[in-house]
Amino acid sequence: MTDDPQKVLFYDGECVLCNRSVQLTIRLDRKARLRHAALQGATAKRLLGDLSPEELLSGVTLYDRGEVFRGWRAIAKVGGILFPWLAWGYHVLRVPPLPWLLDRLYAFVGRNRYRWFGQYDSCALPPAQWRDRYIVD
What we know:
Elements: E1 7-11, H1 16-28, E2 35-38, H2 42-47, H3 53-56, E3 61-64, E4 67-70, H4 72-82, H5 88-93, H6 98-117, E5 134-135
């Protein structure tokens, strides 16, 4: 077995919306099933090395035991991890034409997230009370 964490939610560490979303995820994840890491860090390069820098920063990415989910798919999978009774939702969202619509909606929000919500000059540090839930590298 490797030292790789089993479930990591990667996010844009400079994005205010992304950081706030991660903080909400941590509050909801009472059993600490997820770890969190910035897409700008070494862990992202190691676990998601096949993605280009542009792909990496284009949105949230979930690494789940070697499988990679991006964008709305990652969000749907996280919903199923946090609330197991919602796991079926991921499969429902894959029914056409929903993936096409969700891809476009996610891309639209992604293109505008800095303008709408702001951007940090560098990756924000995690709040002290949640440092154990982050991979900081």
